[in-house]
Amino acid sequence: MKASLTLPTPDDTELLGRAVGERLRPGDLVVLAGPLGAGKTVLARGIGAGLGIRGPVTSPTFVIAREHPALPGGRGVPLVHVDAYRLGGMAELDDLDLDTDLLAAAVVVEWGEGMAERLADEHLLIRLQRPSGGTDDTRIAQLHGPDRLIPELAWPCCEQPNA
Ligand SMILES: Nc1ncnc2c1ncn2[C@@H]1O[C@H](COP(=O)(O)OP(=O)(O)O)[C@@H](O)[C@H]1O
Ligand SMILES: [Mg+2]
């Protein structure tokens, strides 16, 4: 399945993330693609909110991976947030010696396209970009993945150019 959404503001991007986060189960993988400043970390923050995890989701650029335990009373799915920008390959992820079992967590990888896919049998790919010639805050999100990971697209704010 493929869906395309227009996201006029960072809040809309965060809301999309939240809707995705609410759908994630242990072992699920989300790959976030798009250039620097596209909004990948904003989206990851929303995913964290949808999962209900501990700690602020910020750019993991200098730590490669950040682990967010599940909050008591929440969904019970921790978040592993990876920034693959400077990761030589996903084999290095295995070497990071994370405390979190990746099969028990939701894993969100920024810059992981072409690398992270092998972490799971199936994954949700979200590509973020500015519309061509765009000068405002608008971003376009394209979602590719299994239906169960794609939120209902009755989006209050947004048209759906190619849905
Ligand atoms: N529609 C939008 N969606 C997401 N971020 C937006 C949007 N409009 C403006 N921004 C801003 O763009 C920046 C995106 O930063 P970030 O999420 O760190 O990008 P990335 O992780 O892709 O490099 C933030 O400062 C955010 O406030
Ligand atoms: Mg980022």
Report a brief summary of the structure.
With 163 residues, the chain is an alpha/beta fold.
What does this structure look like?
By secondary structure, this protein is an alpha/beta fold. It has one domain: Rossmann fold. It is built from three helices and seven strands. The chain has a seven-stranded mixed sheet, covered by helices on one side. Helix 3 links the parallel strand 4 and strand 5. The longest helix is centred in the first third of the chain and has 12 residues, at 10-21. The chain is globular, with a radius of gyration of 15 Å. Adenosine-5'-diphosphate (ADP) binds next to helix 1 and helix 2.
Q: What is the ordering of alpha helices and beta strands?
A: EHEHEEHEEE
Structural class: alpha/beta
How are strands sequenced across the largest beta sheet? 1-7-6-2-5-4-3
CATH top level assignment:
Alpha Beta
Count up the helices. 3
Into how many domains do the coordinates divide? 1
Mean pLDDT: 88
CATH topology: the name is: Rossmann fold
List keywords for this structure.
binds magnesium ion; alpha/beta; 18% helix; globular; 163 residues; binds adenosine-5'-diphosphate; Rossmann fold; seven-stranded mixed sheet
